[in-house]
Amino acid sequence: MNPAVHARPLFIALGLLLLLALWLSLALGPVSLPLQETLQAALRLLGLPLSGAGLEQAELILGQIRLPRTLLGLAVGAVLALSGVAMQGLFRNPLADPGLIGVSSGAALGAALAIVFGARLGGLPEAFAPYLLSACAFAGGLGVTTLVYRFGRRNGQTSVATMLLAGIALTALSGAAIGLFTYLADDTTLRTLTFWNLGSLNGASYARLWPLLIVTIAVALWLPRRAKALNALLLGESEARHLGFAVERLKRELVFCTALGVGAAVAAAGMIGFIGLVVPHLVRLLAGPDHRVLLPASALAGASLLLLADLVARLVMAPAELPIGIITALIGAPFFLYLLMRGRS
Amino acid sequence: MLRAENLAVQRGPCTVLADIHLELRPGEVLGVLGPNGAGKSTLLAALSGELPAAHGRVLLDERPLSAWHGPERARRLAVLPQTSSLGFAFRVEEVVSMGRLPHATGRTRDAEIVGEALAAADAAHLAGRNYLELSGGERQRVHLARVLAQLWPGGEGQVLLLDEPTSMLDPLHQHTTLQATRAFAEQGAAVLVILHDLNLAARYCDRLLLLEHGRPHAFGTPDEVLRAEPLRAVFGLEVLVQRHPERGHPLIVAR
Protein backbone atom coordinates (compact mmCIF):
# COMPACT_ATOMS: atom_id res chain seq x y z
CA MET A 1 0.00 0.00 0.00
CA ASN A 2 1.49 3.28 -1.07
CA PRO A 3 0.20 6.35 0.72
CA ALA A 4 -2.67 7.76 -1.28
CA VAL A 5 -1.07 11.19 -1.48
CA HIS A 6 2.53 12.31 -1.81
CA ALA A 7 3.91 14.95 0.48
CA ARG A 8 4.05 17.90 -1.88
CA PRO A 9 0.47 17.83 -3.23
CA LEU A 10 -0.72 17.18 0.33
CA PHE A 11 1.01 20.30 1.63
CA ILE A 12 -0.35 22.36 -1.29
CA ALA A 13 -3.89 21.10 -0.65
CA LEU A 14 -3.65 21.67 3.11
CA GLY A 15 -2.20 25.14 2.53
CA LEU A 16 -5.11 26.04 0.26
CA LEU A 17 -7.58 24.59 2.76
CA LEU A 18 -6.06 26.71 5.51
CA LEU A 19 -6.26 29.85 3.35
CA LEU A 20 -9.92 29.09 2.66
CA ALA A 21 -10.62 28.53 6.35
CA LEU A 22 -8.81 31.75 7.26
CA TRP A 23 -10.78 33.72 4.70
CA LEU A 24 -14.14 32.25 5.77
CA SER A 25 -13.32 32.79 9.42
CA LEU A 26 -12.50 36.46 8.75
CA ALA A 27 -15.33 37.16 6.32
CA LEU A 28 -18.34 35.37 7.81
CA GLY A 29 -20.33 36.32 10.87
CA PRO A 30 -23.27 38.51 11.83
CA VAL A 31 -21.89 41.01 9.32
CA SER A 32 -20.57 39.31 6.21
CA LEU A 33 -17.72 41.05 4.48
CA PRO A 34 -16.87 40.75 0.78
CA LEU A 35 -13.60 39.02 -0.09
CA GLN A 36 -11.78 42.11 -1.30
CA GLU A 37 -12.66 44.17 1.77
CA THR A 38 -11.67 41.32 4.09
CA LEU A 39 -8.37 40.90 2.37
CA GLN A 40 -7.59 44.59 2.21
CA ALA A 41 -8.54 45.25 5.83
CA ALA A 42 -6.66 42.18 7.07
CA LEU A 43 -3.52 43.20 5.21
CA ARG A 44 -3.81 46.76 6.57
CA LEU A 45 -4.16 45.39 10.09
CA LEU A 46 -1.03 43.33 9.55
CA GLY A 47 0.75 46.59 8.75
CA LEU A 48 0.77 46.77 4.95
CA PRO A 49 0.49 50.30 3.62
CA LEU A 50 -2.77 50.02 1.65
CA SER A 51 -5.44 52.65 1.18
CA GLY A 52 -8.03 52.40 3.95
CA ALA A 53 -10.85 54.41 2.38
CA GLY A 54 -14.30 52.97 3.17
CA LEU A 55 -12.84 50.17 5.27
CA GLU A 56 -13.49 51.61 8.72
CA GLN A 57 -16.27 49.15 9.60
CA ALA A 58 -14.42 46.16 8.18
CA GLU A 59 -11.26 47.14 10.03
CA LEU A 60 -13.13 47.54 13.28
CA ILE A 61 -14.82 44.14 13.03
CA LEU A 62 -11.66 42.40 11.92
CA GLY A 63 -9.28 44.14 14.27
CA GLN A 64 -11.40 43.88 17.39
CA ILE A 65 -13.15 40.57 16.91
CA ARG A 66 -12.37 38.33 13.98
CA LEU A 67 -8.62 38.61 13.58
CA PRO A 68 -7.78 37.73 17.20
CA ARG A 69 -10.40 34.99 17.10
CA THR A 70 -9.06 33.57 13.85
CA LEU A 71 -5.47 33.66 15.06
CA LEU A 72 -6.57 32.00 18.30
CA GLY A 73 -8.34 29.23 16.36
CA LEU A 74 -5.32 28.80 14.09
CA ALA A 75 -2.93 28.44 17.02
CA VAL A 76 -5.21 26.23 19.15
CA GLY A 77 -5.90 23.86 16.24
CA ALA A 78 -2.25 23.62 15.23
CA VAL A 79 -0.90 23.11 18.73
CA LEU A 80 -3.57 20.55 19.70
CA ALA A 81 -2.89 18.51 16.55
CA LEU A 82 0.87 18.66 17.18
CA SER A 83 0.35 17.61 20.80
CA GLY A 84 -1.76 14.71 19.58
CA VAL A 85 1.04 13.53 17.28
CA ALA A 86 3.57 13.86 20.11
CA MET A 87 1.36 11.87 22.53
CA GLN A 88 0.73 9.14 19.99
CA GLY A 89 4.44 8.89 19.30
CA LEU A 90 5.24 8.81 23.01
CA PHE A 91 2.69 6.09 23.76
CA ARG A 92 3.35 4.41 20.42
CA ASN A 93 -0.39 4.15 19.98
CA PRO A 94 -2.70 6.06 17.64
CA LEU A 95 -5.50 6.24 20.25
CA ALA A 96 -3.60 8.53 22.62
CA ASP A 97 -5.24 11.95 22.66
CA PRO A 98 -4.53 14.78 25.10
CA GLY A 99 -8.23 14.96 25.95
CA LEU A 100 -8.79 11.22 26.37
CA ILE A 101 -5.85 10.60 28.66
CA GLY A 102 -6.63 13.53 30.93
CA VAL A 103 -3.99 16.08 29.93
CA SER A 104 -6.66 18.62 28.97
CA SER A 105 -8.57 18.21 32.22
CA GLY A 106 -5.33 18.43 34.19
CA ALA A 107 -4.60 21.67 32.39
CA ALA A 108 -8.16 22.85 33.03
CA LEU A 109 -7.71 22.10 36.72
CA GLY A 110 -4.54 24.18 36.71
CA ALA A 111 -6.41 26.97 34.94
CA ALA A 112 -9.33 26.71 37.39
CA LEU A 113 -6.93 26.98 40.33
CA ALA A 114 -5.46 30.10 38.76
CA ILE A 115 -8.92 31.61 38.20
CA VAL A 116 -10.23 30.85 41.67
CA PHE A 117 -7.16 31.85 43.62
CA GLY A 118 -6.50 34.74 41.26
CA ALA A 119 -9.98 36.03 42.17
CA ARG A 120 -9.28 35.42 45.89
CA LEU A 121 -6.12 37.46 45.68
CA GLY A 122 -8.23 40.34 44.45
CA GLY A 123 -7.36 40.14 40.78
CA LEU A 124 -3.99 40.23 39.10
CA PRO A 125 -2.50 42.87 36.85
CA GLU A 126 -4.35 42.66 33.53
CA ALA A 127 -1.25 42.00 31.39
CA PHE A 128 0.10 39.29 33.70
CA ALA A 129 -3.04 37.19 34.16
CA PRO A 130 -2.97 35.24 30.84
CA TYR A 131 0.62 34.17 31.51
CA LEU A 132 -0.19 32.97 35.03
CA LEU A 133 -3.18 31.09 33.62
CA SER A 134 -0.99 29.47 30.95
CA ALA A 135 1.68 28.57 33.47
CA CYS A 136 -0.85 26.93 35.82
CA ALA A 137 -2.51 25.06 32.92
CA PHE A 138 0.93 23.91 31.80
CA ALA A 139 1.75 22.68 35.31
CA GLY A 140 -1.58 20.79 35.51
CA GLY A 141 -1.04 19.24 32.08
CA LEU A 142 2.54 18.26 32.90
CA GLY A 143 1.46 16.63 36.16
CA VAL A 144 -1.25 14.54 34.54
CA THR A 145 0.88 13.53 31.53
CA THR A 146 3.62 12.34 33.85
CA LEU A 147 1.16 10.44 36.05
CA VAL A 148 -0.59 8.73 33.13
CA TYR A 149 2.76 7.82 31.66
CA ARG A 150 3.95 6.33 34.96
CA PHE A 151 0.70 4.35 35.33
CA GLY A 152 0.62 3.18 31.73
CA ARG A 153 4.16 1.78 31.72
CA ARG A 154 5.35 -1.49 33.12
CA ASN A 155 8.74 -3.08 32.38
CA GLY A 156 9.38 -0.81 29.44
CA GLN A 157 6.04 -1.65 27.80
CA THR A 158 3.12 0.72 27.41
CA SER A 159 -0.25 -0.69 28.32
CA VAL A 160 -2.84 1.25 26.37
CA ALA A 161 -5.71 -0.03 28.47
CA THR A 162 -4.06 1.10 31.70
CA MET A 163 -3.18 4.40 30.10
CA LEU A 164 -6.76 5.11 29.03
CA LEU A 165 -8.13 3.96 32.39
CA ALA A 166 -5.64 6.10 34.28
CA GLY A 167 -6.73 8.95 32.03
CA ILE A 168 -10.37 8.36 32.95
CA ALA A 169 -9.53 8.32 36.66
CA LEU A 170 -7.48 11.50 36.47
CA THR A 171 -10.14 13.21 34.33
CA ALA A 172 -12.72 12.31 36.98
CA LEU A 173 -10.45 13.60 39.72
CA SER A 174 -9.81 16.90 37.93
CA GLY A 175 -13.53 17.10 37.17
CA ALA A 176 -14.35 16.66 40.86
CA ALA A 177 -11.93 19.40 41.84
CA ILE A 178 -13.28 21.75 39.17
CA GLY A 179 -16.82 20.82 40.27
CA LEU A 180 -15.95 21.77 43.81
CA PHE A 181 -14.66 25.13 42.64
CA THR A 182 -17.81 25.61 40.58
CA TYR A 183 -19.95 24.88 43.63
CA LEU A 184 -18.03 27.33 45.78
CA ALA A 185 -17.54 30.00 43.11
CA ASP A 186 -19.28 33.35 42.87
CA ASP A 187 -21.13 34.34 39.71
CA THR A 188 -18.27 35.83 37.70
CA THR A 189 -15.88 33.01 38.48
CA LEU A 190 -18.61 30.50 37.72
CA ARG A 191 -19.10 31.86 34.23
CA THR A 192 -15.38 31.77 33.54
CA LEU A 193 -15.12 28.20 34.82
CA THR A 194 -18.03 26.97 32.70
CA PHE A 195 -16.45 28.58 29.69
CA TRP A 196 -13.21 26.71 30.33
CA ASN A 197 -14.98 23.40 30.64
CA LEU A 198 -16.77 23.68 27.31
CA GLY A 199 -14.13 25.41 25.26
CA SER A 200 -14.76 28.42 23.08
CA LEU A 201 -12.91 30.93 20.96
CA ASN A 202 -15.44 33.57 22.00
CA GLY A 203 -14.09 36.75 23.51
CA ALA A 204 -10.64 36.24 22.02
CA SER A 205 -8.30 39.06 22.87
CA TYR A 206 -4.71 39.78 21.93
CA ALA A 207 -3.73 39.51 25.61
CA ARG A 208 -4.91 35.87 25.66
CA LEU A 209 -3.41 35.23 22.27
CA TRP A 210 0.25 36.07 22.93
CA PRO A 211 1.27 33.29 25.33
CA LEU A 212 -0.44 30.74 23.08
CA LEU A 213 1.19 32.07 19.90
CA ILE A 214 4.63 31.93 21.50
CA VAL A 215 4.08 28.34 22.65
CA THR A 216 2.59 27.24 19.31
CA ILE A 217 5.53 28.62 17.36
CA ALA A 218 8.00 27.03 19.77
CA VAL A 219 6.31 23.59 19.61
CA ALA A 220 5.84 23.80 15.82
CA LEU A 221 9.55 24.54 15.39
CA TRP A 222 10.77 22.02 17.96
CA LEU A 223 8.81 18.86 17.23
CA PRO A 224 9.77 18.51 13.53
CA ARG A 225 13.42 18.46 14.65
CA ARG A 226 12.55 15.22 16.42
CA ALA A 227 10.66 13.70 13.46
CA LYS A 228 13.27 11.01 12.75
CA ALA A 229 13.60 10.11 16.41
CA LEU A 230 9.79 9.82 16.63
CA ASN A 231 9.81 7.47 13.63
CA ALA A 232 12.43 5.30 15.33
CA LEU A 233 10.48 5.40 18.60
CA LEU A 234 7.48 3.81 16.83
CA LEU A 235 9.66 0.71 16.31
CA GLY A 236 10.07 0.39 20.07
CA GLU A 237 12.10 2.05 22.77
CA SER A 238 15.05 -0.32 22.70
CA GLU A 239 15.03 -0.34 18.88
CA ALA A 240 15.24 3.47 18.95
CA ARG A 241 18.14 3.24 21.42
CA HIS A 242 19.90 0.72 19.17
CA LEU A 243 19.50 3.20 16.32
CA GLY A 244 21.46 5.70 18.39
CA PHE A 245 18.70 7.95 19.75
CA ALA A 246 18.65 9.29 23.31
CA VAL A 247 15.25 7.85 24.11
CA GLU A 248 14.86 9.06 27.70
CA ARG A 249 15.58 12.63 26.70
CA LEU A 250 13.23 12.34 23.72
CA LYS A 251 10.40 11.12 25.96
CA ARG A 252 10.93 13.99 28.40
CA GLU A 253 10.83 16.45 25.51
CA LEU A 254 7.60 14.94 24.20
CA VAL A 255 5.90 15.11 27.61
CA PHE A 256 7.10 18.69 28.01
CA CYS A 257 5.94 19.79 24.53
CA THR A 258 2.52 18.18 24.99
CA ALA A 259 1.95 19.72 28.41
CA LEU A 260 3.13 23.09 27.15
CA GLY A 261 0.98 22.97 24.02
CA VAL A 262 -2.18 21.63 25.64
CA GLY A 263 -1.70 23.89 28.66
CA ALA A 264 -1.45 27.00 26.51
CA ALA A 265 -4.40 25.93 24.33
CA VAL A 266 -6.61 25.19 27.36
CA ALA A 267 -5.61 28.45 29.04
CA ALA A 268 -6.55 30.41 25.92
CA ALA A 269 -9.66 28.58 24.72
CA GLY A 270 -10.73 26.02 27.31
CA MET A 271 -11.04 22.29 26.74
CA ILE A 272 -11.46 21.49 23.06
CA GLY A 273 -11.37 17.75 22.60
CA PHE A 274 -10.54 15.26 19.86
CA ILE A 275 -8.54 17.55 17.55
CA GLY A 276 -5.39 15.74 18.64
CA LEU A 277 -7.01 12.39 17.86
CA VAL A 278 -8.87 13.04 14.61
CA VAL A 279 -6.36 15.20 12.75
CA PRO A 280 -3.24 12.98 12.94
CA HIS A 281 -5.42 10.01 12.02
CA LEU A 282 -6.75 11.63 8.88
CA VAL A 283 -3.27 12.75 7.87
CA ARG A 284 -1.88 9.23 8.43
CA LEU A 285 -4.63 7.78 6.25
CA LEU A 286 -3.61 10.17 3.47
CA ALA A 287 0.16 10.28 3.74
CA GLY A 288 1.34 7.46 6.02
CA PRO A 289 2.88 7.65 9.50
CA ASP A 290 6.24 9.31 8.65
CA HIS A 291 6.59 12.16 11.17
CA ARG A 292 8.55 14.30 8.74
CA VAL A 293 5.27 14.76 6.84
CA LEU A 294 2.84 14.01 9.65
CA LEU A 295 3.92 16.82 11.98
CA PRO A 296 3.69 19.81 9.63
CA ALA A 297 0.65 18.39 7.82
CA SER A 298 -1.19 17.84 11.12
CA ALA A 299 -0.45 21.41 12.20
CA LEU A 300 -1.96 22.75 8.96
CA ALA A 301 -4.95 20.39 9.04
CA GLY A 302 -5.58 21.00 12.75
CA ALA A 303 -5.64 24.76 12.25
CA SER A 304 -8.06 24.43 9.31
CA LEU A 305 -10.34 21.98 11.08
CA LEU A 306 -10.60 24.10 14.20
CA LEU A 307 -11.34 27.26 12.21
CA LEU A 308 -14.08 25.44 10.29
CA ALA A 309 -15.51 23.97 13.50
CA ASP A 310 -15.53 27.46 15.00
CA LEU A 311 -17.33 28.73 11.93
CA VAL A 312 -20.03 26.11 12.49
CA ALA A 313 -20.19 27.02 16.18
CA ARG A 314 -20.68 30.67 15.27
CA LEU A 315 -23.15 30.28 12.41
CA VAL A 316 -25.38 27.31 13.15
CA MET A 317 -27.46 29.06 15.82
CA ALA A 318 -26.61 32.69 14.97
CA PRO A 319 -26.76 35.13 16.60
CA ALA A 320 -26.29 32.75 19.56
CA GLU A 321 -23.04 30.78 19.68
CA LEU A 322 -22.34 27.17 20.55
CA PRO A 323 -19.18 26.31 22.51
CA ILE A 324 -16.76 24.84 19.97
CA GLY A 325 -15.95 21.95 22.31
CA ILE A 326 -19.44 20.61 21.58
CA ILE A 327 -18.79 20.64 17.83
CA THR A 328 -15.41 18.90 18.05
CA ALA A 329 -16.83 16.29 20.44
CA LEU A 330 -19.74 15.67 18.04
CA ILE A 331 -17.25 14.91 15.27
CA GLY A 332 -14.55 13.32 17.42
CA ALA A 333 -16.40 10.93 19.73
CA PRO A 334 -18.05 8.87 16.94
CA PHE A 335 -14.70 8.87 15.14
CA PHE A 336 -13.04 7.42 18.26
CA LEU A 337 -15.73 4.71 18.49
CA TYR A 338 -15.18 3.90 14.83
CA LEU A 339 -11.44 3.51 15.45
CA LEU A 340 -12.12 1.21 18.41
CA MET A 341 -14.42 -0.95 16.29
CA ARG A 342 -11.95 -1.11 13.44
CA GLY A 343 -9.14 -1.99 15.83
CA ARG A 344 -11.11 -4.96 17.09
CA SER A 345 -11.96 -6.49 13.74
CA MET B 1 35.39 -5.93 18.53
CA LEU B 2 32.73 -6.64 21.11
CA ARG B 3 34.08 -8.26 24.25
CA ALA B 4 32.41 -9.21 27.52
CA GLU B 5 34.64 -9.53 30.57
CA ASN B 6 33.34 -11.43 33.57
CA LEU B 7 29.86 -10.12 32.79
CA ALA B 8 27.00 -10.58 35.26
CA VAL B 9 23.45 -9.20 35.30
CA GLN B 10 21.08 -9.00 38.23
CA ARG B 11 17.32 -8.68 38.21
CA GLY B 12 16.22 -7.71 41.69
CA PRO B 13 18.00 -10.05 44.09
CA CYS B 14 18.51 -12.79 41.46
CA THR B 15 21.64 -13.14 39.40
CA VAL B 16 20.23 -13.98 35.97
CA LEU B 17 23.54 -14.03 34.13
CA ALA B 18 27.08 -14.62 35.41
CA ASP B 19 30.63 -15.63 34.44
CA ILE B 20 30.31 -14.54 30.83
CA HIS B 21 33.65 -14.15 29.11
CA LEU B 22 33.40 -13.94 25.38
CA GLU B 23 34.73 -12.10 22.41
CA LEU B 24 32.97 -11.76 19.09
CA ARG B 25 35.48 -12.17 16.30
CA PRO B 26 35.37 -10.56 12.85
CA GLY B 27 33.94 -12.85 10.22
CA GLU B 28 32.60 -15.31 12.75
CA VAL B 29 29.08 -16.42 13.64
CA LEU B 30 28.69 -17.22 17.33
CA GLY B 31 25.56 -19.17 18.24
CA VAL B 32 23.93 -19.04 21.68
CA LEU B 33 21.89 -22.06 22.75
CA GLY B 34 20.00 -22.91 25.88
CA PRO B 35 16.59 -23.84 27.23
CA ASN B 36 13.84 -21.25 27.83
CA GLY B 37 14.84 -18.90 30.62
CA ALA B 38 18.54 -19.78 30.41
CA GLY B 39 19.42 -16.11 29.97
CA LYS B 40 19.99 -15.93 26.21
CA SER B 41 18.00 -12.74 25.66
CA THR B 42 19.44 -11.29 28.87
CA LEU B 43 22.91 -11.91 27.47
CA LEU B 44 21.97 -10.13 24.26
CA ALA B 45 20.48 -7.20 26.18
CA ALA B 46 23.62 -6.91 28.30
CA LEU B 47 25.90 -7.10 25.26
CA SER B 48 23.95 -4.32 23.55
CA GLY B 49 23.95 -2.04 26.58
CA GLU B 50 20.19 -2.34 27.23
CA LEU B 51 20.72 -3.96 30.64
CA PRO B 52 23.33 -2.62 33.02
CA ALA B 53 26.04 -5.03 34.14
CA ALA B 54 26.12 -5.86 37.83
CA HIS B 55 29.68 -7.10 37.37
CA GLY B 56 32.25 -6.92 34.65
CA ARG B 57 31.93 -4.88 31.50
CA VAL B 58 31.20 -4.87 27.78
CA LEU B 59 33.77 -3.30 25.51
CA LEU B 60 33.37 -2.30 21.89
CA ASP B 61 36.86 -1.65 20.48
CA GLU B 62 38.29 -1.57 24.01
CA ARG B 63 35.88 1.25 24.94
CA PRO B 64 32.98 0.59 27.35
CA LEU B 65 29.64 0.62 25.49
CA SER B 66 28.29 3.44 27.66
CA ALA B 67 31.17 5.68 26.56
CA TRP B 68 30.06 5.49 22.93
CA HIS B 69 28.07 8.32 21.41
CA GLY B 70 24.61 7.03 20.30
CA PRO B 71 24.75 7.33 16.50
CA GLU B 72 28.45 6.39 16.43
CA ARG B 73 27.64 3.18 18.31
CA ALA B 74 24.62 2.52 16.10
CA ARG B 75 26.83 2.56 13.00
CA ARG B 76 28.90 -0.22 14.55
CA LEU B 77 26.40 -2.31 16.51
CA ALA B 78 22.94 -3.41 15.36
CA VAL B 79 20.43 -5.51 17.29
CA LEU B 80 17.48 -7.55 16.03
CA PRO B 81 14.97 -8.13 18.84
CA GLN B 82 12.91 -11.30 19.11
CA THR B 83 9.61 -9.56 18.38
CA SER B 84 8.67 -6.10 17.29
CA SER B 85 5.63 -4.12 18.33
CA LEU B 86 5.48 -1.62 15.47
CA GLY B 87 1.78 -0.75 15.13
CA PHE B 88 1.80 1.95 12.45
CA ALA B 89 1.19 1.50 8.74
CA PHE B 90 4.68 2.19 7.40
CA ARG B 91 5.62 0.83 4.01
CA VAL B 92 8.20 -1.98 4.07
CA GLU B 93 11.01 0.14 2.67
CA GLU B 94 10.25 2.90 5.19
CA VAL B 95 10.79 0.37 8.00
CA VAL B 96 14.05 -0.81 6.46
CA SER B 97 15.26 2.75 5.83
CA MET B 98 15.01 3.42 9.58
CA GLY B 99 18.23 1.40 9.73
CA ARG B 100 19.84 4.31 7.89
CA LEU B 101 18.82 6.93 10.49
CA PRO B 102 22.23 6.90 12.24
CA HIS B 103 23.92 7.54 8.89
CA ALA B 104 24.13 10.59 6.66
CA THR B 105 24.72 8.87 3.36
CA GLY B 106 22.01 10.70 1.44
CA ARG B 107 18.64 9.66 0.10
CA THR B 108 19.85 8.05 -3.15
CA ARG B 109 22.48 5.87 -1.51
CA ASP B 110 20.08 4.97 1.31
CA ALA B 111 17.45 3.82 -1.21
CA GLU B 112 20.06 1.59 -2.90
CA ILE B 113 21.10 0.13 0.45
CA VAL B 114 17.48 -0.49 1.45
CA GLY B 115 16.98 -2.41 -1.81
CA GLU B 116 20.14 -4.47 -1.31
CA ALA B 117 19.33 -5.25 2.33
CA LEU B 118 15.79 -6.31 1.40
CA ALA B 119 17.22 -8.59 -1.28
CA ALA B 120 19.71 -10.05 1.21
CA ALA B 121 16.86 -10.89 3.59
CA ASP B 122 14.90 -12.40 0.70
CA ALA B 123 12.22 -9.76 1.14
CA ALA B 124 12.69 -7.67 -2.00
CA HIS B 125 9.25 -8.68 -3.26
CA LEU B 126 7.68 -7.09 -0.16
CA ALA B 127 8.78 -3.56 -1.15
CA GLY B 128 5.82 -1.20 -1.37
CA ARG B 129 3.63 -3.30 0.93
CA ASN B 130 2.06 -2.03 4.14
CA TYR B 131 4.04 -3.44 7.08
CA LEU B 132 0.88 -4.14 9.07
CA GLU B 133 -0.48 -6.40 6.33
CA LEU B 134 2.53 -8.74 6.47
CA SER B 135 2.64 -12.12 8.20
CA GLY B 136 4.82 -12.66 11.27
CA GLY B 137 7.60 -14.30 9.28
CA GLU B 138 7.57 -11.58 6.62
CA ARG B 139 7.80 -8.92 9.32
CA GLN B 140 10.74 -10.74 10.84
CA ARG B 141 12.58 -10.68 7.50
CA VAL B 142 11.81 -6.99 7.07
CA HIS B 143 13.39 -6.28 10.46
CA LEU B 144 16.39 -8.41 9.51
CA ALA B 145 16.73 -6.23 6.40
CA ARG B 146 16.49 -3.18 8.68
CA VAL B 147 19.41 -4.22 10.89
CA LEU B 148 21.44 -5.31 7.85
CA ALA B 149 20.81 -1.87 6.32
CA GLN B 150 22.01 -0.30 9.56
CA LEU B 151 25.47 -1.87 9.07
CA TRP B 152 25.45 -2.17 5.27
CA PRO B 153 27.59 -3.26 3.46
CA GLY B 154 29.14 -4.83 6.55
CA GLY B 155 32.80 -5.03 7.32
CA GLU B 156 35.42 -5.60 9.94
CA GLY B 157 34.62 -3.81 13.20
CA GLN B 158 30.87 -4.16 12.93
CA VAL B 159 28.75 -6.24 15.26
CA LEU B 160 25.34 -7.77 14.62
CA LEU B 161 23.29 -9.31 17.45
CA LEU B 162 20.26 -11.41 16.45
CA ASP B 163 17.66 -12.75 18.90
CA GLU B 164 16.00 -15.84 17.38
CA PRO B 165 15.83 -14.47 13.83
CA THR B 166 14.28 -17.73 12.59
CA SER B 167 11.56 -18.22 15.21
CA MET B 168 8.64 -17.46 12.88
CA LEU B 169 10.10 -18.57 9.58
CA ASP B 170 9.24 -21.48 7.33
CA PRO B 171 12.04 -24.06 6.79
CA LEU B 172 13.27 -22.50 3.57
CA HIS B 173 13.53 -19.04 5.08
CA GLN B 174 15.22 -20.34 8.21
CA HIS B 175 18.04 -21.38 5.90
CA THR B 176 18.01 -18.31 3.64
CA THR B 177 18.08 -16.05 6.72
CA LEU B 178 21.04 -17.82 8.26
CA GLN B 179 22.78 -17.97 4.89
CA ALA B 180 22.35 -14.19 4.63
CA THR B 181 23.73 -13.87 8.15
CA ARG B 182 26.75 -16.00 7.22
CA ALA B 183 27.32 -13.99 4.05
CA PHE B 184 27.19 -10.83 6.13
CA ALA B 185 29.77 -12.24 8.54
CA GLU B 186 32.02 -13.15 5.64
CA GLN B 187 32.21 -9.44 4.78
CA GLY B 188 34.02 -9.07 8.12
CA ALA B 189 31.25 -8.40 10.63
CA ALA B 190 31.05 -10.28 13.93
CA VAL B 191 27.68 -11.94 14.46
CA LEU B 192 26.00 -13.35 17.54
CA VAL B 193 22.79 -15.28 16.98
CA ILE B 194 20.43 -16.87 19.48
CA LEU B 195 18.95 -20.09 18.11
CA HIS B 196 16.71 -22.90 19.29
CA ASP B 197 17.26 -25.32 16.45
CA LEU B 198 20.39 -27.36 17.23
CA ASN B 199 20.86 -28.47 13.62
CA LEU B 200 20.69 -24.93 12.28
CA ALA B 201 23.27 -23.97 14.91
CA ALA B 202 25.48 -26.90 13.87
CA ARG B 203 25.33 -25.91 10.25
CA TYR B 204 25.73 -22.12 10.36
CA CYS B 205 27.74 -21.25 13.49
CA ASP B 206 31.52 -21.24 13.91
CA ARG B 207 31.35 -21.38 17.69
CA LEU B 208 28.58 -22.14 20.13
CA LEU B 209 27.83 -20.99 23.67
CA LEU B 210 25.54 -23.30 25.63
CA LEU B 211 23.87 -21.48 28.53
CA GLU B 212 22.26 -23.02 31.58
CA HIS B 213 20.70 -20.96 34.39
CA GLY B 214 22.51 -17.88 33.20
CA ARG B 215 25.95 -19.50 33.23
CA PRO B 216 28.00 -20.95 30.40
CA HIS B 217 27.86 -24.73 30.41
CA ALA B 218 29.91 -25.32 27.27
CA PHE B 219 31.66 -23.00 24.84
CA GLY B 220 33.48 -24.10 21.70
CA THR B 221 33.10 -25.38 18.16
CA PRO B 222 29.86 -27.17 17.20
CA ASP B 223 31.76 -30.48 17.41
CA GLU B 224 32.80 -29.72 20.99
CA VAL B 225 29.44 -28.41 22.22
CA LEU B 226 26.90 -30.54 20.37
CA ARG B 227 27.59 -33.81 22.15
CA ALA B 228 25.16 -36.08 23.92
CA GLU B 229 26.36 -35.33 27.50
CA PRO B 230 26.14 -31.50 27.53
CA LEU B 231 22.80 -31.61 25.68
CA ARG B 232 21.40 -34.08 28.19
CA ALA B 233 22.71 -32.02 31.10
CA VAL B 234 21.31 -28.73 29.83
CA PHE B 235 18.13 -29.64 27.95
CA GLY B 236 17.36 -32.94 29.72
CA LEU B 237 17.06 -34.43 26.24
CA GLU B 238 18.48 -37.77 25.12
CA VAL B 239 20.01 -37.34 21.68
CA LEU B 240 22.02 -39.21 19.08
CA VAL B 241 24.75 -37.20 17.42
CA GLN B 242 25.48 -38.25 13.86
CA ARG B 243 27.24 -36.67 10.90
CA HIS B 244 25.53 -34.76 8.16
CA PRO B 245 26.01 -37.10 5.17
CA GLU B 246 27.08 -34.31 2.79
CA ARG B 247 28.47 -31.54 4.99
CA GLY B 248 30.02 -33.42 7.88
CA HIS B 249 28.71 -31.15 10.67
CA PRO B 250 26.98 -32.73 13.68
CA LEU B 251 23.37 -33.78 13.16
CA ILE B 252 21.26 -34.03 16.31
CA VAL B 253 18.43 -36.54 16.50
CA ALA B 254 16.26 -37.01 19.57
CA ARG B 255 16.21 -40.60 20.79
Automatic annotation (TrEMBL), chain A:
Keywords tagged on the record: Cell membrane, Membrane, Transmembrane, Transmembrane helix, Transport
InterPro entries, per the entry: ABC_BtuC-like, ABC_transptr_permease_BtuC
Principal localisation: membrane
GO terms under biological process: siderophore-iron import into cell
Gene Ontology MF term list: transmembrane transporter activity
Superkingdom of origin: Bacteria
Membrane topology summary: Multi-pass membrane protein
Gene Ontology terms: cellular component: plasma membrane
Residue intervals passing through the bilayer: 71-91, 98-119, 131-151, 163-185, 205-223, 254-281, 293-313, 320-341
Subcellular localization, as worded in the UniProt entry: Cell membrane
Family: Belongs to the binding-protein-dependent transport system permease family. FecCD subfamily.
Protein name: Iron complex transport system permease protein
From TrEMBL, chain B:
Molecular function GO terms recorded: ATP binding; ATP hydrolysis activity
Keywords: ATP-binding, Nucleotide-binding, Translocase, Transport
Stored InterPro entries: AAA+_ATPase, ABC_transporter-like_ATP-bd, P-loop_NTPase
SMART domains (alphabetical): AAA (SM00382)
Domain (ABC transporter) ranges: 2-238
Pfam families recorded: ABC_tran
Family statement: Belongs to the ABC transporter superfamily.
Function in brief: Part of the ABC transporter complex HmuTUV involved in hemin import. Responsible for energy coupling to the transport system.
Protein's name according to its UniProt entry: Iron complex transport system ATP-binding protein
Organism whose genome encodes this protein: Pseudomonas indica
Lineage: Bacteria, Pseudomonadati, Pseudomonadota, Gammaproteobacteria, Pseudomonadales
